TrEMBL record:
Organism, as annotated: Streptomyces gossypii
Protein's UniProt name: ROK family protein
Source domain of life: Bacteria
PANTHER family: N-ACETYLMANNOSAMINE KINASE, ROK (REPRESSOR, ORF, KINASE) FAMILY
Family: Belongs to the ROK (NagC/XylR) family.
InterPro entries cross-referenced by the UniProt entry: ATPase_NBD, ROK, ROK_cs
Pfam families for the chain: ROK
Length: 313
């Protein structure tokens, strides 16, 4: 039997996506459900099981040899558990065991969603060819993953590079993780939107209160919307510059739903990097948009799974 496909799950605070991914990174079957983020843990798992059931009904399922998961974090790859900050029903939740059971006993690899994105961008995206890279997912939360010495660096629990909970404002607002002033508390989509609303920005007639709507208002010249994105960009720049000082990365690749704001985010991010990345060995750090798009989590979960199965390849 031909077994050239890997199943992949991308689990975040907004959506649970699944796909069958071939050796070239193509998605040959897909399924998706909204994440019932405020529901109990078993209801969230039921949505994961629905995605897996839809994938397993695809005719290509017989070619699947393993399954990779990229999950909002923190995760514990060694224990097979997840405790996503933005999915309160999952605390030390045994996701690997539950997914393995739902997937008929397939081998399962778990990494954080930021690590999954880094795997995707190293394989097929903007981090390809770089020895040192930080890849960021800026969405409902903020995650990250590292490429060091040309190799994906997951850390022992699968969380290495989790820039979202680097503190950039010591006296900042309390983060759901328990700390204060985290990058995520300032730069995530919901926090960009909440800050704009608190500053007086008003949604349009459609009532859209998302970060995407704030980005549209910023492009139209709304000062409050512009300021909210600039604040997010400064938090990201501070975290990226600190990572660069520690690890001498050459490039930071920024993806996720918030990155689709384009220059509304990237222009102030580049300006802030010039302010924070001042040491000689970090001044030339490049800021690039991710290339693997909305499929990065799925492609990366598959890539991390293949790497775990065949580390010498």
């Amino acid at each position: 039997m031909q077994t050239d496909l890997v199943a992949a799950l991308d689990i975040g605070g907004t959506k649970i996506a699944g796909a069958l991914v071939d050796g070239d990174g193509r998605l040959v079957a897909q399924a998706r459900r909204p994440t019932p983020g405020q529901a109990g843990g078993e209801r969230v798992m039921a949505a994961v099981a629905e995605v897996l059931a839809e994938l397993s009904a695809a005719p290509q399922w017989t070619r699947v040899s393993a399954l990779g998961i990229g999950s909002a974090g923190p995760v514990d790859a060694a224990a097979g558990t997840v405790s996503p900050v933005n999915i309160p029903g999952w605390r030390a939740y045994p996701l690997v065991a539950r997914v393995r059971e739902a997937a008929g006993g397939l081998p399962v690899t778990l990494v954080g969603d930021g690590v999954a994105m880094a795997a995707a961008e190293r394989w097929q995206g903007a981090a390809r060819g770089y020895a040192g890279a930080l890849c960021l997912v800026v969405s409902t939360g903020v995650g990250g993953g590292l490429v060091l010495g040309g190799e994906l660096h997951t850390g022992p629990t699968g969380n290495a590079g989790h820039i979202g909970h680097v503190v950039v404002d010591m006296d900042g607002d309390r983060c759901p993780c328990g700390s204060r002033g985290c990058v995520e508390r300032i730069a995530s989509g919901p926090n960009i939107a909440a800050r704009a609303l608190a500053g007086g920005w008003l949604p349009g007639p459609d009532g859209d209160r998302s970060a995407a709507a704030v980005a549209a208002a910023a492009r139209a010249g709304n000062g409050v919307a512009i300021a909210s994105y600039e604040r997010a960009a400064r938090a990201l720049a501070a975290g990226i510059a600190s990572t660069a000082a520690l690890a001498e990365i050459e490039v930071a690749v920024v993806g996720g739903g918030v990155a689709r704001a384009g220059e509304v985010l990237f222009a102030p991010l580049r300006r802030a990097m010039a302010e924070f990345a001042t040491l000689s060995f970090v001044r030339d750090l490049r800021i690039l948009p991710a290339r693997t798009g909305t499929d990065a989590g799925l492609v990366g979960a598959a890539a991390a799974c293949r790497e775990a199965l065949h580390p010498a390849r």
